[in-house]
Amino acid sequence: MRSSAARDRKMPKSLPIALPITLRMYRRLASGLVPLAPALIKRRLKQGKEDPARVGERRGLSRDVRPHGPLVWIHGASVGEVLAAAALIARLRDLNLRILLTSGTVTSAAVVAKRFPPDVIHQYVPYDSPRYVARFLDHWKPSLALFIESDLWPNLILAGAARRVPMVLINGRMSPRSFPRWRRMHGTISALLSRFDICLAQSKIDAERFSALGGRDVVTTGNLKLDVPAPPADPGKLERLMAMTRGRPIIVAASTHPGEDEMLIAAHRSLVGFFPQLLTVIVPRHPDRGSSIAGLVMASGLKPALRSREELPMATTDVYVADTMGELGLFYRLSPIVFMGGSLIHHGGQNPIEAIKLGAAIVHGPHVFNFADVYEALDASGGARQADTQEALVKQLGRLLAEPTVRDKMQRAASSVVEQLGGALDRTMVALEPYLLQLRIEMGAANA
């Protein structure tokens, strides 16, 4: 049923005009740096951070043609944000709406190409210069803009608002690190957040932070990542991996960051004395770290294999480095024990939901503020185990390897938590209803 807030919401609202001096200076600086863009692009190309065939998109240029009719533009920073929008995009496509999806990384573009239907148009987000942003908006003329989480580019937001594009922040998150920094720059963040017609926050505390920073219509809808379907896996590749590892105890360390690999390798060395055939699979958050991780494995006296070199885990392989993109679904299906990366260091923890949906028992470090509500509920229910130290990491992983009944109990508890915390997709669709109704009216007029 449509909420009273949704019924009463009107579009577009009057927009604030005055900009704080910080944003005025930012706009001038961004304009002045345009001549340096070729040098920046050249450097990023050498680093593998840009697609040489599509660098024009960074300057607001596109070879693709804008489709006829209403166009919903969805922007997310990288892989996590793009995948968070997957179920929402499916719902919007069911309404016959065309989708423009922008992101800023090569890895996210690869994921879109692999995981999304071909009619979802992907573009690299333009560099945040007024000139490039104007080109982008002139070409695509979006009917509705949805920004995911917290990737807030000032010129992109200000230009969209100036053109009266209805703008919504979805799956909004304000981390405990970002909040005090933005609070010291309240005028700046308020000028940006107030350009959004509505902010849809992941949690109550996120909603409170957005309201305190100037969000003018903030609603708690929950975390879309809880409604993301389990990642796919190639059946043939899975069957081959299972055949190569049959009978071996396996631990998957997912989305690891620098500083964690060493601890996982050390944990393997401690555990292999009790589980002689143990295989540890390390899936780095950034695949280009594969070779350096393999070097750490060899330096510790263990034998690695690298998936990027099309190597398979042989009987003598101790650590399998899965340094490829888009295959987490494969490895989650391979092991019932998953360590979630980004949590032993002060990164904030990676998303455990996909692993849980594929039946994993979760171990994580103490730094999980990116998904604080989820991990808190998991820990309280017994659906996950926290390891604060190297010794605790070994202890928790060892217990799960030794006691299948404990794993099964954790898996059931974790699945229950995910089910209870779900529903963000439905709540997001309710909040978007007035905007989508307007687009359907426009579609009807265009087809009349």
Automatic annotation (TrEMBL):
<protein>
    <recommendedName>
        <fullName>3-deoxy-D-manno-octulosonic acid transferase</fullName>
        <ecNumber>2.4.99.12</ecNumber>
    </recommendedName>
</protein>
<keyword id="KW-0808">Transferase</keyword>
<feature type="domain" description="3-deoxy-D-manno-octulosonic-acid transferase N-terminal">
    <location>
        <begin position="54"/>
        <end position="227"/>
    </location>
</feature>
<keyword id="KW-1003">Cell membrane</keyword>
<dbReference type="InterPro" id="IPR039901">
    <property type="entry name" value="Kdotransferase"/>
</dbReference>
<dbReference type="GO" id="GO:0043842">
    <property type="term" value="F:Kdo transferase activity"/>
</dbReference>
<feature type="active site" description="Proton acceptor">
    <location>
        <position position="81"/>
    </location>
</feature>
<feature type="site" description="Transition state stabilizer">
    <location>
        <position position="225"/>
    </location>
</feature>
<comment type="pathway">
    <text>Bacterial outer membrane biogenesis; LPS core biosynthesis.</text>
</comment>
<keyword id="KW-0448">Lipopolysaccharide biosynthesis</keyword>
<feature type="site" description="Transition state stabilizer">
    <location>
        <position position="149"/>
    </location>
</feature>
<dbReference type="InterPro" id="IPR038107">
    <property type="entry name" value="Glycos_transf_N_sf"/>
</dbReference>
<dbReference type="GO" id="GO:0009244">
    <property type="term" value="P:lipopolysaccharide core region biosynthetic process"/>
</dbReference>
<dbReference type="GO" id="GO:0009245">
    <property type="term" value="P:lipid A biosynthetic process"/>
</dbReference>
<comment type="function">
    <text>Involved in lipopolysaccharide (LPS) biosynthesis. Catalyzes the transfer of 3-deoxy-D-manno-octulosonate (Kdo) residue(s) from CMP-Kdo to lipid IV(A), the tetraacyldisaccharide-1,4'-bisphosphate precursor of lipid A.</text>
</comment>
<dbReference type="Pfam" id="PF04413">
    <property type="entry name" value="Glycos_transf_N"/>
</dbReference>
<dbReference type="GO" id="GO:0005886">
    <property type="term" value="C:plasma membrane"/>
</dbReference>
<dbReference type="InterPro" id="IPR007507">
    <property type="entry name" value="Glycos_transf_N"/>
</dbReference>
<keyword id="KW-0472">Membrane</keyword>
<comment type="similarity">
    <text>Belongs to the glycosyltransferase group 1 family. Glycosyltransferase 30 subfamily.</text>
</comment>
